[in-house]
Amino acid sequence: MTAILIAATTAAALLAGCSDSSSSDSDPLKPAAPAASGTGKGKDPQSGTVVVGSNNFAESVLLMDLYGEALKAKGVTVQYKPNIGTREITYGLVKNGSVTVLPEFNGSLLSYLDKSATPTTPEAATAAIEAKLDPSLTMLDPAPAEDKDSLTVNKETAAKYHLTSQSTIADLAKYGSDIVVGGSPEFQTRQQGLVGLKSQYGLNPKSFKPLDAGGPLTVQALKANSVQAADVFTTDASITREHFVTLQDPKKLFGIANVQPMVSKTALSPEAVAALNAVSAKLDTKSLLDMDAQVQNDKKDPLDVAKAWLKSVGLG
User: Fold this and answer.
1) Residue ranges per domain, the chain?
2) What is the pLDDT of residue 42?
3) How far apart are CA 103 and CA 84, in angstroms?
């Protein structure tokens, strides 16, 4: 999935303000210092501290806070390592024990581990990831929440054709001759793009407009109605801000990208694992989009947003 790498660039300005959600020790390369003796309920039996990290983009920091604060609510001592870097860095830190928990996206993690894999369910993705993971690591339960490519229409198009968040790409296909689709130049020739939209859904647009990959050019083109549909990531805050409508993709053309924690296999107590899985069970795409919008549109502290959501679902 391309959403993770691209979001890292566009979110750079936001990340500086996210540091308040971390613990006082923000050096991502420094292992956690051992806590006082005695593990207590839900604490890491090895050191007494669970280190929760994030990649260097805003949504990952928010997810770090969600999972970390859920652990704290169960009495676990947590240390945060926000904004560490890209997957090439964070994977190694989880593997060497410097980070205990890292919120991941199963589709993109699997692509990193095995570029030839094409799973269509979270279960298949988990099995494929586990087959390639370092033996010291494991995956916890996937969340329903996904951050992935999508076909999203602007509010004018949604109103004109009576499209809602429950509508599918096939519902738009019947109006294809009136629709200009926007996306990255590569979107025009990819299976996970125009090729697949035509073959899987019968969507033959009036034309294609090359833009960026779900970035500001795409958002602006949708706002201006110079394109009526475009590739926008499913938890992009512009969806809420501009009242865009993301169409359902029942044929999984855009693959899967569920939030799913990657953890050190032996570093968590059963209580800690249960706390993390409880977050994933409650976290859907709509909830994640709403929280992203609060952080990115309303400029709220991600830690405050995470705490409020956890409390609202009985986990805080």
Assistant:
1) 3-146+256-312, 151-246
2) 34
3) 12
